[in-house]
């Protein structure tokens, strides 16, 4: 018995050791050096997609051309995280205009589906899979909005690399192969149609493993139609009609008319100043301003005297998160349907009032009173100083399980993120955009671009953004170290889908967080847990305005790559 206890203790201690890389420079947790380049930089979650983006830049394309080309490739190469069945958000730095632009390319709910339908079904939430959570996919329209405003190369040339890889095939990488070999069998087990034909039938009737060749000629054909016919080929042609008929056949409501009415929206990014750096996010229906709320609260503490990864660091971070996420649950929604008090939520006065509620114990909070899950992230910068921060997703990894026949992709299930409780900001309505988790970020300093970055992972994303900013600004890390540093998140609490806080939640930590920190957090009243696979997906590009050099970083927890020239 005593020997067994000793083994358990050794195992637990080992679990919480910092895994050094034995590098002779930089932080011990860094996996590699920052990538450097003078003329351009691409950072995505797949090396082949990164190289496609780099080829576009080298052949005279700009950052937006390269981003669209890389995103199209990721829809093929990483279908477990994104695709043209999903939505897209982007922040673009136009170096000629010296201005940031924001694009909300998220889709809306079906016009013919009403809240009464769910109430008659006695539903307490919208299902995670099947036809009911499917909203209009906005990614393709997002591509063409970006291209129409900033693009330089023809769309056919931009999409051709992805078309070639889809027809000829490419080897699956380690993590994506792992996810696919879990996700595809899951959807098959649920009896969803066209899954085997879409993901296995074109590959000898089996699902490739790591290093084996994967093809998707259906998607190649769909991309070719989009390249030749533009966005209308997707939203007003045979593709939309095929999807509408398929969803109706499956008992859903999304129709070709919903596709024909879709449009993206150019929006003004919003910001707060954190210790001299302007941090930019997009306004709701996304959750980006939660990161800004957290930073406003945390700016009131002097982290020059608080060590990274200490109990005090994690405690203050967690309490700021709880406060911001209570507001997220109450106020964040489609601003065409609800007057979100963005200015008040981001004010210094409001942050001070929220900060005053934090003590040295784990707390439980409510939203302030104001009058009034898998993804890909990528970023590109070009020789002319243009930069794009882009995030794109189907939600829940591959999406809803609804793969329209012979189109080569799965539709998103973002509609799951509506609330079915009447009278809330995010309550379901026809033609409404659901609360969204995917958020791109950007940082400027003294009116100049400083960093384009993002972190995938559902609810973790605002927490991830806040951790990256603090790692760079408060703890002096370079952008690769900032992504490699051990992470943590907090679960529990209210949500925009109608859940309410029942306790103080759980702080989940990666193995790099020390046992001393964990023990001290427990002493403050925090519950501690462990999670896997929820923290990854970070990419970043930083502009060194003194030396005129781009710094690139990619997520060590994924298969990605940053590359420059």
Automatic annotation (TrEMBL):
It comes from the Bacteria. The active site is at residue 375. It catalyses: glutathione + H2O = L-cysteinylglycine + L-glutamate; an N-terminal (5-L-glutamyl)-[peptide] + an alpha-amino acid = 5-L-glutamyl amino acid + an N-terminal L-alpha-aminoacyl-[peptide]; an S-substituted glutathione + H2O = an S-substituted L-cysteinylglycine + L-glutamate. Signal peptide: none annotated. Cleaved by autocatalysis into a large and a small subunit. Pathway: Sulfur metabolism; glutathione metabolism. The keyword Hydrolase applies. Pfam families: G_glu_transpept. One of its GO terms (biological process) is glutathione catabolic process. Keywords: Acyltransferase, Glutathione biosynthesis, Hydrolase, Transferase, Zymogen. GO terms for molecular function: glutathione hydrolase activity; leukotriene C4 gamma-glutamyl transferase activity. InterPro entries: GGT-like_enzyme, GGT_peptidase, GGT_ssub_C, Ntn_hydrolases_N. L-glutamate binds at residue 458. Its EC number is 2.3.2.2, 3.4.19.13. This enzyme consists of two polypeptide chains, which are synthesized in precursor form from a single polypeptide. Belongs to the gamma-glutamyltransferase family. NCBIfam families: g_glut_trans. This is Glutathione hydrolase proenzyme.
């Amino acid at each position: 018995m005593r020997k067994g206890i000793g083994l358990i203790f050794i195992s637990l201690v080992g679990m919480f050791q910092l895994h050094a890389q034995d590098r002779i420079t930089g932080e011990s947790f860094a996996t590699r050096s920052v990538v450097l380049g003078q003329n351009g930089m691409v950072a995505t979650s797949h090396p082949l997609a990164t190289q496609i983006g780099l080829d576009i830049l080298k052949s005279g394309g700009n950052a937006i051309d390269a981003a669209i080309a890389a995103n199209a490739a990721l829809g093929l190469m990483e279908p477990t995280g994104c695709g043209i069945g999903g939505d897209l958000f982007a922040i673009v730095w136009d170096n000629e205009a010296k201005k940031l632009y924001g694009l909300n390319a998220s889709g809306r709910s079906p016009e013919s589906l009403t809240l009464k339908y769910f109430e008659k079904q006695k539903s307490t939430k919208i299902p995670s899979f099947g036809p009911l959570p499917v909203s209009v996919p906005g990614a393709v329209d997002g591509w063409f909005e970006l291209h129409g405003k900033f693009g330089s190369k023809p769309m056919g040339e931009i999409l051709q690399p992805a078309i070639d890889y889809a027809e000829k095939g490419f080897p699956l990488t380690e993590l994506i192969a792992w996810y696919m070999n879990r996700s595809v069998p899951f959807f098959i087990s649920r009896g969803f149609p066209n899954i085997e034909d879409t993901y296995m039938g074109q590959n000898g009737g089996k699902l490739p493993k790591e290093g084996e060749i994967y093809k998707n000629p259906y998607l190649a054909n769909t991309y070719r139609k989009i390249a030749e016919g533009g966005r209308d080929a997707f939203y007003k042609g045979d593709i939309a009609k095929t999807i509408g008929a398929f969803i109706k056949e499956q008992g859903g409501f999304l129709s070709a008319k919903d596709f024909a009415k879709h449009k993206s929206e150019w929006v003004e990014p919003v910001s707060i100043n954190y210790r001299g750096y302007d941090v930019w996010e997009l306004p709701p229906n996304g959750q980006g301003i939660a990161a800004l709320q957290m930073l406003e609260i945390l700016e009131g503490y002097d982290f020059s005297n608080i060590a990274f990864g200490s109990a005090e660091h994690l405690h203050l971070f967690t309490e700021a998160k709880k406060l911001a996420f209570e507001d997220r649950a109450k106020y964040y929604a489609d601003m065409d349907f609800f007057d979100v008090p963005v200015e008040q939520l981001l004010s210094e006065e409001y942050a001070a009032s929220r900060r005053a509620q934090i003590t040295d114990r784990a707390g439980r909070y409510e939203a302030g009173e104001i009058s009034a899950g898998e993804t890909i992230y990528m970023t590109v910068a070009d020789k002319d100083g243009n930069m794009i921060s882009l995030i794109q997703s189907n939600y829940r990894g591959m999406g809803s399980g609804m793969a329209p026949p012979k189109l080569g992709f799965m539709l998103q299930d973002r509609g799951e993120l509506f609330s079915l409780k009447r009278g809330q900001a995010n309550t379901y309505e026809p033609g409404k955009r659901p609360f969204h988790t995917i958020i791109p970020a950007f940082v400027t300093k003294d009116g100049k671009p400083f960093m384009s970055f993002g972190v995938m992972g559902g609810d973790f994303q605002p927490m991830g953004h806040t951790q990256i900013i603090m790692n760079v600004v408060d703890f002096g890390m370079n952008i690769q170290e900032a992504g490699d540093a051990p992470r943590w998140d907090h679960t529990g609490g209210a949500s925009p889908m109608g859940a309410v806080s029942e306790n103080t939640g759980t702080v989940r930590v990666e193995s790099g967080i020390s046992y001393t920190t964990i023990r001290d957090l427990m002493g403050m009243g925090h519950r501690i847990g462990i999670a896997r696979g929820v923290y990854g997906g970070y990419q970043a590009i930083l502009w060194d305005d003194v030396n005129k050099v781009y710094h690139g970083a990619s997520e060590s927890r994924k298969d990605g790559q940053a590359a420059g020239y």
